[in-house]
# Entry
Amino acid sequence: MNPFDLPLLATIVNHAATALLRLADLLDPIAGPASAALAIVLATALVRTALVPLGVAQARAERDRRRLAPRVAGLRKRYRDRPDRLQAELRSLYAAEGVSPAGGCLPALAQAPVLSFAYATLVLPTIAGHQNVILSATAFGVPLGDSFAAAAAASALSPTLVAITLVLVAVALLAGELSRRAFAPDDPALPAWARRSTGLLQFLTAALVPFVPVAAGVYLAATVTWTLGQRLVLQRVFASRA
# Structure
């Protein structure tokens, strides 16, 4: 069962889609054929701004993890054959430093419901038994409900849809590559395969873009770009306070 078929969740998503369409109408005199796409970008920025406090908490936890990484690695090496003692020493270290081992996970989990609603608003073809209104809007003449993969399968690709998809994929790839270079995990406690795979995960968004509606592709490209910028800013802020 799709959880967004539940009356309460469907109502929330429906209101979000309607609000996006109204924002696109307001932007139309300024942005013209790009108004619907711009509305999604602005809405994404608004949602992510509201989530900045959680991003700050996540960045703080990441800073603490990096700061303690050498000591954690030393404890793991020293007590590698005594797992009970290792866990006790790690608990003591985290308690003494006032750090929660799950500090980086909890903010990410707290953001998940909000981001899920945002994504559902832009990918569900029907909401509460009727067509998703935002997917009927267009960007440069292309319906936001169209996707590159579906159009290709139906031999209905248009040059504009191809161009929009390429731009969104390029944006996601660039954000992913910059993120990989800037935030490659340096925790010596992580095995080499985990450090490599973490970098590769940055590119899943770009791979997903051709298979989702244009509306969702715009959201994905906007959110990975926002995430990159936010992490760079917070990294600089916390580095200056170190």
